[in-house]
Amino acid sequence: MFRHFATVQEFHDWLFSEPVVTVKIPGKLFIAGEYAVTQPGGMAIVAAVDSDFSVSIKLGGSHSTLRTNIGLEDFSFRLADLRMADSVETPEQWHFALAAVRHFQAAVEDNLDIEVEIDIHSGLGFGETKKGYGSSAAVVCGIVKALDLFFDSKFSLREQFEIAADSHFEVQGSGSGGDIAAIIYGGLIVYRNRDLIEALDLPKSWKVYAISTGKSVKTGQKLTDLQLSTDFLADSNQIVEKLSRTQNFADFKEGLLENQEILRKNLPADYVTEQLAFALNAVNSVPQLAGKISGSGFGENIILFSSEVSQEDLESVSEKLQRHDMELEALKIAHKN
């Protein structure tokens, strides 16, 4: 479970070779079921999408260090101190990262008796500039995957998922873990409350896009006091199962819009902002396009699928969105791990 050395010389050679590991981490977008999945038995479909996010780890000096490109001050600590959760006072901005390090330490069989430098490079934004692709989930998943590779601990995907999901939930206090599962496993998945993580394939000819409003929404805040009926949960699960089985674009679009409609009926009116309503109408009026609000709604992203859409239609939709301060961005589904 952990890197062992046959001789002192082998350890010496490794120690002074200054090994550096870097992992690229996808973001995530929910396709369907994002509110239902927060309830017991609720299912969702989640896509991992390629992103400009990576975590690098190398040997540290007397202390371990966290640093990032998004403007936060570097944070130094000792791994031995971090094992005791209350012994290290941490800035709020580093809570997710440090929770991931601590949970990884708890999961390995040996104490981590060397210090490390962890560099997080993110193109997913921070705070008010978040893109809504799961930046906090990417942090915990990236750190767990990078530490696993650096220390050669060989945790399975399921073990990596559990470590990252526990870390994320500790800090956020809510959430299904669907975003964590998508990022750890890659590709598209059908997910249910940690007991189901199943790979899903859509036709390769379909293309995926995101429509970004440039606004950030904290999903956890939208779940506070939210009451969802058992009928909503049953309807959502039925739609998710339908979407996971079909390879026909017209049927897929129908299911996507059904999921959108039950969300609209069961969530507060401002779930669909004026901007999002315009975008949904613009894309779904084109037969070869199927769009739906992804994630919490209230102003963030739309995930968009296309099948044999003409370049003229796509450019026309893009121009309409730009006039309403939205951007159409081509995405690529991240590879399966």
Give a structural overview:
With 337 residues, the protein is α+β, with helices and mostly antiparallel strands. The protein folds into two domains: 191 residues, Ribosomal Protein S5, domain 2, CATH 3.30.230.10; 126 residues, Alpha-Beta Plaits (2-Layer Sandwich). Helix content is 38%, strand content 21%. The strands form three sheets. Strands 1-4-7-5-6 form a five-stranded mixed β-sheet. A hairpin with a 3-residue loop joins strand 8 and strand 9. Helix 4 crosses helix 6 and helix 5 runs antiparallel to helix 6. The longest helix has 18 residues. The radius of gyration is 21 Å and the shape is elongated.
Short key terms for the protein model shown above:
11 helices, Alpha-Beta Plaits, alpha+beta, 38% helix, Ribosomal Protein S5, domain 2, 5-stranded mixed sheet
Secondary structure elements and pairings:
Blueprint: H1 8-15, E1 20-24, E2 27-32, E3 44-49, E4 53-59, E5 64-68, E6 75-77, H2 79-82, H3 95-107, E7 116-122, H4 135-150, H5 157-172, H6 178-185, E8 188-192, E9 196-200, E10 207-212, H7 219-223, H8 230-245, H9 249-266, H10 274-284, E11 289-294, E12 301-306, H11 311-323, E13 327-331
Parallel strand pairs: 5-7
Antiparallel strand pairs: 1-4, 2-3, 3-8, 4-7, 5-6, 8-9, 10-12, 10-13, 11-12
